Every structure is written in structure tokens, then in C-alpha cells.
Amino acid sequence: MSHAVGRLLMVGVGPGTDLRFIPPAVTSVAAVEPVAAFRRMAAALARRNGIAVDVVDGVGESIPFPDNSFDSVHIGLVLCSVDDVAATLAEIRRVLVPGGRLVVLEHVRGAGAMGRCQDLIARPWSRLACGCEPNRRTIDAIAKAGFDTSGLRSIPRTLVPPPCTPHLQGVAVVVDE
């Protein structure tokens, strides 16, 4: 989250846990969340902590804001669960200004045996974990959507147990067309 600047959109804000980590360089915050209970929780957490945020109903595949509305977009453990990763990333790119920042913290498909294990359990895991697919190749999808991914790094070992490891963290920047 430390890479976020200016006008920030949080896609899939959930209950708002990440709102507490907004850096001082952020000037305004909006959030998109499809789950009504999470929207209420995020708004309540923001009020309790004195954070001004506009939490709206929406999904990543159809972000309800105009083109070029944000300097930064944050996704935290979201792309594993969206219905359409490519559409979500296209929408994120649309609402970002040229040169805008995609701030990323996602769990992704591992390499080797871990990746093969994630592939094997992906379908049953998704049913048990609210649509989470632990084997998504997220960095490839971000690059294909028109972002420079050189600011993203893989974190192979985290406190989160398999199959939701490794993690991808950092910032990807919109590449000018």
C-alpha cells in the first residue's frame, strides 16, 4: 500500500482492513465492494478511524467510475476471486490515469511442486473458499493487461499457509500505448 499516491481506488475492499494502511501521499479514497455486509463494515471502520472514503457497490469487472479517475488502484487478495481477471485488469487500467499505479498484494500460483499441487486442488478449493482460485498466474495477467510489472516481486514464504502462497507484492505501472 505504501506505493499508493493521489486519488486511490481500492477494488474489493472487503471489511476495510487495509484502510488503516493508507499512506499520507493519498489525497482521496474510493472503494468498490460487491458484498453489502463488507461495504457496511468498511464504512464503519473508516468512520471509527476518521478516514474519508466513498464505499460503493460494484465489481472489478465493471468499475462504476469514469476513465482516468485515479492515480492509484489497490488490489489486496482480490484477483484470486474475481470471475474474470482480464476484464478486471482492463477496468483497472481504464480508471487509472496514464502512468497510474496498480498496488498489488495477491497470492499466486507457485512454481514446481507447489504450483502443481495448487492446480490439482484449485476446483475443490474454490468451492470451499468463496471462489478463490489459488493457481492463478497473476503477474502474467497484469503484464498482458498493459502494465509494467518490473516493480512486482514474488514472496515465496509468508505466514499464510499453502495453497495461498507465494505472494506477489509491489507496484505495476500503466504502460503508455
Automatic annotation (TrEMBL):
Its EC number is 2.1.1.-. GO terms for biological process: methylation. It is an enzyme of class 2 (transferase). It comes from the Bacteria. InterPro entries: Methyltransf_11 (IPR013216), SAM-dependent_MTases_sf (IPR029063), Thiol_S-MT (IPR052356). Residues 9-104 form the Methyltransferase type domain. Transmembrane segments: none annotated. Keywords: Methyltransferase, Transferase. Gene3D superfamilies: Vaccinia Virus protein VP39. CDD domains: AdoMet_MTases. One of its GO terms (molecular function) is S-adenosylmethionine-dependent methyltransferase activity. Pfam families: Methyltransf_11 (PF08241). This is Methyltransferase YcgJ. It comes from Mycobacterium persicum. The gene is ycgJ.
